[in-house]
Every structure is written in C-alpha cells, then in structure tokens.
Amino acid sequence: IRLATVGIGFDLRTFPKEDKARFLRSVSEGTSRGMPAWASTLKAEQMDLLWAYIGSVNGWAAAADTPQPR
After folding, report:
1. Distances in Å between the alpha carbon of 63 and those of 32, 34, 37, 38, 46?
2. 10, 18 in Cβ contact below 8 A?
3. DSSP assignment string, the chain
C-alpha cells in the first residue's frame, strides 16, 4: 500500500515517528487542509492501530509498542 496521495494530502511515508501526538490530533480533530475529524467515528485504540500500521509500513521499531488488534 502506498501511503502517499497525488497532490492532495500528506505523504505518510514522511511523517516523523516522534510526532505521534500530532498524528492523533490531526486524526481526531481534522486539519485545515481538508481532512475531516474522526474523533466521533474512531476509538482511541483504533487510532493507535492506524499509527502502528503507518509505523509498520515505514519500518519504525517504535510502532511495536502499540497494542495489537484482538
């Protein structure tokens, strides 16, 4: 899966692994660049799983500390 878009959105392959808080805020609250807020749709555990997925695709060892789905 390619974590990039064609001109509209953020290339998740370049997202800094040290900035999980910004990722979670962007997913929860949305962004001014057009991404909708997902806080009313996704639970915190689901957002953590998204973060882990992005980390696994990008090869981040730090993503391994996120809980695995049940």
Report:
1. 26, 26, 23, 21, 14
2. no
3. -----SSSS--GGG--TT-HHHHHHHHHH--TTSPPP-TTTS-HHHHHHHHHHHHHHHT-GGGGGSPPP-
pLDDT for 42 equals 95
Q: Say what the pLDDT of residue 29 is.
A: 93
Closest CA to 68 of 59, 58, 55: 55
Contact 5, 61 (CB under 8 A): no
Does the pTM surpass 0.85? The reply is no
Taking residues 12-27, what's their average pLDDT? 88
Contact between 51 and 62 under an 8 Å Cβ cutoff? The reply is: no
Q: What is d(CA 10, CA 3) in angstroms, rounded to the nearest whole number?
A: 9
